[in-house]
Every structure is written in C-alpha cells, then in structure tokens.
Structure prediction request, 338 residues.
Amino acid sequence: MELQSIHAGTPHPVECGASFAQTRLVDRFADRLERARVAVITDREVAGYYADDFSSQFRRAGIDVVVIQVDAREAAKSFDTVRPAYERLTDMEFSSADLLFALGGGGVMDAASFVAATYHGGVDCVLVPTSLLAMIDSSVSQQAYLNFMSHKNQIGVSFTPYCSVIDTDYLRTLPVRYQANGYAQLILYGLLSDPSLLTKLEQKDADKLALIDAGIRARRVLFEKNTQYLSLGHEISNAIEGHFRFLKYTHGEALALGILAHYSSESVLALYKKYGLPTEVSGVTRETLLKRILREASGGGDKFTYVSLPEPGRPVIQSVPVSEVEALFDRLLTPILT
Prediction:
C-alpha cells in the first residue's frame, strides 16, 4: 500500500499506510541515509516482534545499525529510562549526520524524542509508532515528556520529528487492552472536535486507517482553535494514574475515566463497553483523589481554569474561584467512583 500524507498541521510530514515500515524505509529515506548510520530505540516487547526485521532492511543496504532497548512502561518513563540510550549513542559516537528511529508505543516515542531533542543539542528522529494511541497522538506531538516522582509528564522538551510514518500492520500484534488506549483518545477527539468520528467508532468493523486519519485531523482542528481543549478530564486522569504509580490503569483507561467524569451519554457508555474501557475507578477513596487533584490544581492566583463539555463538539473553557475547586471536583468524581 502506498503511503499517504495526512494533513496534521505539523511542521514535519506525517505519512500513513500499511505493510511498508519493516521493509521500505531505506527507500523512503534514501537521501537522508546516504553516509549515515542508524540507531533504533525500542522496548523489549516490540523488539521481540519487530526489531530484527526492522533493522535488517538497513543492514541489507550496507547501513550500520544499532538497536537500543529501553524500559518504556509508563511507570518507568524517567531519566533512568533514557540513560542507556545516551550511553549507547555515545559509545557509537552517534552524530547529527546519523538518523535515529523510534519504534514502539507512546513510552518509546517519548523516550526517543526526549533523547533526540537533547543529545548533542538535537538529532534527527523518525517516529514509527506501533500502538494506536501513539499513532494518533505521539506521531503528531511537538513535545517529549518524562515522569518524575509519580507526577505525569513533569519534565518536557520541545521536539520536532524528522518525519512520522504510521504503519497499521503493527496493530495486529497490539493487545486488546492497549488498543483500547487509542480508542479512548479517539473518543476524546470525537467529543471535542468531530462527533462524526464517534459514529465511525460505532461501526462494527471500523477501518483503522480511516480512524487514524480522522483522529489526527480532529486533533489538528483542536490545536488551531485552542490546545487547552485537549486537557478535558486530565486533572482527574492524571490523579488516577499518579496515585496508582501508573501501574493499575493504563493511560487510556485513566483518560476514559476523566472524560466520563465530565460527559456521559448512552452512546459514549456503549463505546466504552465495545472497546473495554472502564466506567468506574476502584481502590482509592474520594478524599485521596481530591487531595491529589487539589495539589496539582494549586497553580497560584485566585481562579482555576478547566475545560467542560456541555455537548459534543462544543468544549468550553471555564473558570471558578479557587475556593470552589474542591466542590467542583467532588461533583465531577461522583459518576466514576463506586
């Protein structure tokens, strides 16, 4: 299948297709790879499926390639994760003339992008996402984040990839639970920007390529309007992830709970059931979650700003006095607490 460009509104190209990333990237980046070496940052799980074939395409073309495995679990996404990558790149004397590839899910995308943005002041990196969430989010992101002391995305740097290439074949080996992460993000895009995307998700055999294209386009519209819209529910989802140290709930599951706290309908609940997303959070008290949310929300000033969703496609930025924040989130948590 030929690659097609997606109008993502990013300064780097975003291309999508199927059955090409394991064999045809040498041809796609032939000019950039002339006299270059390649380093591939991935994780153990993805490497087990794909690293050998992925790296072999460069070796067959006479290009030196090194595969670097990192621990890209959300619970481990820290400075300890990126340190081995810096060490291996230094050992091979990697330079700006060479090309880095990120092969994996969102954790790999963040780790590799963080390394690419900071090593030698910045090196070119091609993102090759293997999870649905990374395909519709990390592939078009202009930031790279690490967690710190159980606080999500506490440390970030600006980063522009050399290119993002999305191959839907990788989704065939993605576990169902992690597929659901991507569907939660697509539901968010649909609710905020494009309700027709929710209709596509309701279809029995929704086309993955069409969903990815629609999701990225919806994200672009949100960025053009106001990037803050994308923070809908994140105060709650970040608190859930952080409380459980990123171990009990995946990012998509926590995001789904944060969305549901702000907006619920029969059609949204039906989508949650279809894609295996949770509708209640367990194992934590209301008081504990509220305490964590309030700590994160205390940014100074006498007003707290957040995103609400009165109806699909119409997000609203609202402000309340700081004195009313606890009551606000006490009310929002009610639908998702058992």
Notes: The first helix runs from residue 25 to 28.
